[in-house]
Amino acid sequence: MIELEDLTKRYGDKLAVDGLSFTVRPGTVTGFLGPNGAGKSTTMRMVLGLDAPTRGDVRIEGKHYGELREPLNSIGALLEAKGVHGGRRAYDHLLCLAQSNGIPERRVGEVLEMVGLQEVARKRPKGFSLGMGQRLGIAAALLGDPRILMFDEPVNGLDPEGIHWIRNLMQQLAREGRTVFVSSHLMSEMAQTAEHLVVIGQGKLLADTSMSQFIAENSRTHVRVRTPEPERMRDVLVEAGLRPVTGGDGALEVDGGEAPRIGELAAANGVVLHELSTQRASLEEAFMRLTAQSVEYHAYAPGADGTQLPQTPPGAAPPPGGAAPPPQPGQAPPAWGEDWKRGR
Ligand SMILES: Nc1ncnc2c1ncn2[C@@H]1O[C@H](COP(=O)(O)OP(=O)(O)OP(=O)(O)O)[C@@H](O)[C@H]1O
């Protein structure tokens, strides 16, 4: 278990982490999400004692990281995959870690096999691909067979086979009753991996909830109805107290309606249906909607007339104070691809 209590980190006048309190529990994969610069890495560094909190506290199984006698046996972490001595062989790198934590040498071979690096065990990591570096970092995290695992963007640089492998690994570790805390930018990946979510924005806690509840609370679920008689169907729905709207392709979309009831209404009124489906938003849509107000950096896409348009996620509310300001007449638009810091 990892417990955060009012955890806060200030760098100069930048509040990177702002009073975070939550608990990461064993037996489940907990996803840690937030837009760029939200404070995820800073939080993870404080868990590992690599950064001192300005205020508040974080404990691993009730102890501060610095109080753990052999930390690798309690918590394994992958933060910076390139944080490896490039000239020391993969095997030797792991052996050094093992010896400093009282872990027997045979475990080095075991973890190299677990991550599929046994063939390159005697090679130096400076020649490794990003994906191989990630695997070596994961091997180091697994070395002490810890009860808690923490991964910062573990699928970075992994190919589809590698992504599939790490997803299964994390779920397996959670099934064994371990605490698994993982950050990722890949929403589709997170949706398949995590059961619980902690979402932060600008250092603050935005959500601490189950994946299904998060999606249900932050997204729009609607029923899509396609029929050759849209006008008649619309009348039937309105008469039943529903409020259909016409989507881009002419299909009717009914918020708050239930597919079985709508199907029965169509049948009772003899309306032919070509499609009746419940549309659930993805984790990505839910995430964009929740975090739209706390995104620190907004990119601009050029509009058809050459003006710059903010990229607003579908259905997302504008951030407080409005979206990042579009260029005013006479003001040079930002260069293509340039991030605009909101409020600048
Ligand atoms: N050592 C530091 N000195 C000053 N500011 C820092 C330092 N480390 C992080 N920050 C700032 O703190 C904020 C949080 O950064 P952090 O890297 O924790 O965010 P993140 O959620 O991990 O972002 P990303 O998803 O882009 O990796 C950012 O505004 C960042 O610029």
UniProtKB/TrEMBL annotation:
| MF terms (GO), sorted A to Z | ATP binding
Q: Residue ranges of region Disordered?
A: 302-344
Which InterPro entries does this one have? Answer: AAA+_ATPase, ABC_transporter-like_ATP-bd, P-loop_NTPase
Record SUPFAM superfamilies: P-loop containing nucleoside triphosphate hydrolases
SMART domains found in the cross-reference section: AAA (SM00382)
Segments forming domain ABC transporter: 2-227
Residue stretches in coiled coil: none
Question: What UniProt keywords apply to this chain's record, in alphabetical order?
Answer: ATP-binding, Nucleotide-binding, Transport
Looking at the UniProt entry, the stretches that span the membrane are none
Question: PROSITE patterns under this entry?
Answer: ABC_TRANSPORTER_2
- Is the keyword Transport in the record? yes
From what superkingdom does this record's organism come?
Bacteria
Compositionally biased, Pro residues: which spans? 311-332
Entry annotated with the keyword Transport: yes
Q: Which family does it belong to?
A: Belongs to the ABC transporter superfamily.
Protein name as annotated: ATP-binding cassette domain-containing protein
> What organism does the UniProt record list as the source?
Streptomyces smyrnaeus
